[in-house]
């Protein structure tokens, strides 16, 4: 299986419409890949909190349309990173609906195969944590060669989410992110940890550039089920392409069946 992670540089001087067209061209250039992955919130920048509202789109908005067409033209499965999604208002009199950090997965025909609303929002009572609502559903998607489990950026710090994805059949964990340079060591460590503990491939795609004054880590990474780094990008915009064998997951889990020895479930015990 061939995967291409497109580590997009977000430049605040570049109009969003121009970046969208540029990224669509990059996706089309990956024809021949099985899976293409984009980063988190690449239309606005993950730390450009003040732009979330103005940059929000309906699920089937301009980014959806551009990425669906690009996936179809390239004939690839496309994880189009995430967008600030403005959900419909439940009550027409209430005005705009809530914002979500929503990932989109398209099939090679350009159809929407899955959408994931980020569960863990970053910010510690500010930024994304207060501006966006939390998703509540784990999302997996069956591809011809593997089952994807979908997570986003800050989710990487919560291993129970990934256990849930593996319990749902995930073999390849895809993590788009806008991870800051100052915590890059955590990015690499956590990607490898999630791969080892879940005996799964991890494809973690970050951004380059600077979001609202926050330098981005870049260093997108692909890790195998033994925690070995198969490929890693540098700090700047680039396309990281790697070939891997999804059958390695089943072989690893059979050779070293640690997942069978789990005792604790996902539910926390009641407080006394």
Tell me what the structure shows.
The mean pLDDT is 95. The N and C termini lie far apart (49 Å). Strands 6-5-4-3-1-15 form a 6-stranded mixed beta sheet. The chain has 7 helices and 15 strands. The protein has 272 residues and is of the alpha/beta class. The protein has helices at residues 16-28, 52-55, 62-74, 128-131, 159-167, 184-198, 247-255, and strands at residues 2-7, 9-10, 35-37, 77-86, 99-106, 112-117, 139-142, 147-150, 172-176, 201-205, 208-211, 214-215, 221-223, 229-232, 238-243. Strand 5 and strand 6 (112-117) form a beta hairpin. The longest helix has 15 residues, at 184-198. The chain has one domain: Nitrilase/N-carbamoyl-D-aminoacid amidohydrolase (4-Layer Sandwich). Helices cover 25% and strands 26% of the residues.
